[in-house]
Structure formats: C-alpha cells, structure tokens
Design goal:
The protein starts with 12 loop residues before the first helix and ends with a helix. The longest helix is centred in the first third of the chain and has 12 residues. It is 20% helix and 36% strand. The chain is built from five helices and ten strands. The protein has 255 residues and is α+β, with helices and mostly antiparallel strands.
Length: 255
Amino acid sequence: MKKLAVTLVSGMLAFSMVLAGCSKGKPQAEPEATVEEQAEEATEETGGDQLIVGGWTVQTEVTTSLTDDQRAVFDKGIQGLVGVEYEPVAELATQLVAGTNHAFLCKGKTVTAEPVEGWYVVTIYEDLEGNATVSIISAIDITKLQVAQEAMPADLVGGWKVTEVTSNAALLPEEAGKAFNKAVGAWTGVTLRPIATLGTQVVSGTNYLVLCEGAATTADPVNELYVATVYADLNGNAKFSSVEQLNLLEYVTGV
C-alpha cells in the first residue's frame, strides 16, 4: 500500500515526513472487510460493469457546501490527527459496506513554520453506530494524477502550481471559470460540471487543471470524476487539451 501522502512537488521531502508521522499516530478503521476486498466483491457482483467502479458511487452534482451530516462524519473521522490541517471541500463519493465509506476532497496545510498547502482525498469509514475513523489519506500530486487510462501528457507536467483556496469562491477562480465555460461549450460526449481548480500552469497562456464530475450522454448515465485540462490562450480563447477519468480507487484504497 502506498504511504498516506506522496510528494506534491520535488524538494518537499520534509512535507512527506510530516504526513507519514501523522498517519502512524492514527488507528486504522477495521470494517468487516478491507477496502480492497470490498472493492473486489462489488466489482464481482456487478460482473465488472462500469456502472459502479469498485462499489463506489460518485455523488450526483457534487457541491462545495457540505451538509451538516457530512461535516459531522468528517469532523469525527479526523479528530486527533496532527501534523496537517484538513479542510473538506466536497464529498466526492460513497461506498456502502457494513456502514459507509466516504471520500472527501480536502485542502490540507502542514502545521509547520512554513506551511505547505496541497490537495488530498480523505477516506473516512462510518460504522452503523455512527462512529467514524480515517481509513486512508492520499495526497493528490497534480503533476502525476492517477487517471483511468494513462498518465498526464509529459508536456503538461512541469511548472504546475497548486491553487490557493481561501473560500468556496476561490475553488473556481474567475479566470478559470471563464476558460472552463468557453471550453465546455464546444465539448460533447460527457457532461462536465466543475468542482475545483486543482492547479494552474503558466505557458503561452494558462493551463487550468479542473476536477469535475459528470456523466456520458447515454441512455443510462452514471456519474464519474474527471480531470479536465483547460488551455486559455493569450487572445481569450479556451479549449480542453485533455479530459480524463480520475481513477478514484487509487486514492481511496492506496493500491
């Protein structure tokens, strides 16, 4: 299994050490079966069908305002964690087991003299009695996103900067929102709705890395998570340079 956190950018070894220390101090949730076993069972039950990937269901119309119940589960789950401050942005998906697994998209900031910010998927197991514990915390390295098919193109890896988030309004900065709306207007096949801008990259223009939820335009659409790279040129034009399905299982199981 992967470590709880991976390096966000080169040279941030100290950051990884802080997160590793954090994970060791938190007991792991022990549902009736491991997350990996639950995923395997769910896949077998659906015959490998893509309608439910590993038993996880992506929320329909993910919002960046948590309900009181979602917030309560998150707060219970992270109670006692040290080293990094996690702020939930949205609940991305759930998985029904003997209880419920919740996958939260979070902004995290190290509790160090020079805080470092990054994105995380925090998976919390809630049992049938309402108790909640963290199962796994996976850092989202925006230069090496885990996608369903293949890695991000090599020319999109360098120079990315994690988006600073100070409020819900900052999850999709104005310029990123304008570029996304222009790009999505010419996009077909999958309806895409933005959740948060994970990072930006200044090139001859700007690339925006946007986490989205959406569904294929089919008779029986099923929501999935996608990562769209939006390129906005210096003349105000914008288009998708790539749209890839996020491999959520990489972040909620660590395998």
